[in-house]
C-alpha cells in the first residue's frame, strides 16, 4: 500500500468518535492535495458499479467506487453511517429521495458533482448515484462507522430490502 495512503488511514483512525462532515472533508482535502495514489483500488466491472474496499475497521471505512457509463446504485440509505465522498474522476449524478409516511419514496431533486467536489450523506439521506457521462466515474468514500448495512428502496412499492456488507477477503484491515 502507498505510504501516503497508509498515513491517511492512520489520520482517519485517530479522529475523535462521531467526526463531523467538515472534519472528514478536511482529511480528504489534505489527502487529495497530496494526490495520494488509489490506482490499485480503481477497478471497474461490466456487471455493475464496483465497491473496492481500501480499509475497514470497527471505526471507519474507505472505499473507492467505480462506475462505467450508465451504471448506477440502487436507491439506498446508509444505515447508521455518515459519509463524505470526493470525486476523483468523472461526474457523479445524485438523485435524492424523501420517504413518505406511507413508506413510499419520492424523488426530490437531482444534482451533479464534478472532479474534486465533495458530497455528503447523513443518517436520513436516501439517494441513487449514477454515471450518466461518457467518462468513467471514480470516487473515494469515507464512512463513519463502516457501511455495514444499507436499505434498498424502490419506486413501485414500500418494501425495503436489506443489504449487509461482506468484508471478508479485504486486505490490510
Ligand atoms: Fe450512498
From TrEMBL:
Keywords: Dioxygenase, Iron, Metal-binding, Oxidoreductase. The keyword Membrane does not apply. Fe cation binds at residues 76, 78, 127. The keyword Lipid metabolism does not apply. One of its GO terms (molecular function) is ferrous iron binding. Pfam families: CDO_I. InterPro entries: CDO_1, RmlC-like_jellyroll, RmlC_Cupin_sf. Belongs to the cysteine dioxygenase family. This is Cysteine dioxygenase.
